[in-house]
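Many introductory courses stop at the sequence. We go one step further.
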Amino acid sequence: MNWIFGARTGFPFTLWDCTSGAYYCMRAIDPVGISTNANGNTATGNPNEYTLLDLSKLMPTAGSYTNPKTGTSDYGPYPSNMTKRDAFRGPGFWNVDLAFSKRFRFGTNYAAQIRIEAYNVFNHANMYAIAANADLSSYDTITGWKDGNRRIQLGFKFEF
């Protein structure tokens, strides 16, 4: 019997504001201090889509900074209340895989092995954030989807 337990914390991502950027996007301005954990699970009404983080409190600040010399947000000096790089975290992940195998020998030169492998034994669907939507100029929420299903496979191997 073999098993593997895998777990990790949520992956980091940055919240951007591309409203006034000509070539580069600056990080979003956060005067209200929103939560940095994108781990909500409110259904949006679309199939397998969930709201993980509501950005509507930051929408009034979108495009509020522009450099007076260039008229864009490509260059600083930037405001001190910008969000930090990789300050936001998506949902965590965990999974358990399990395998049973038995080897039978036939004489000195032959053997057979039977295996049953189960991936995602508990049929747990993990939440994944769509971090590509982390731009205040285009989106007011960070959404995600659930994915993961149990897979079982049988195997037979003959050695000669």
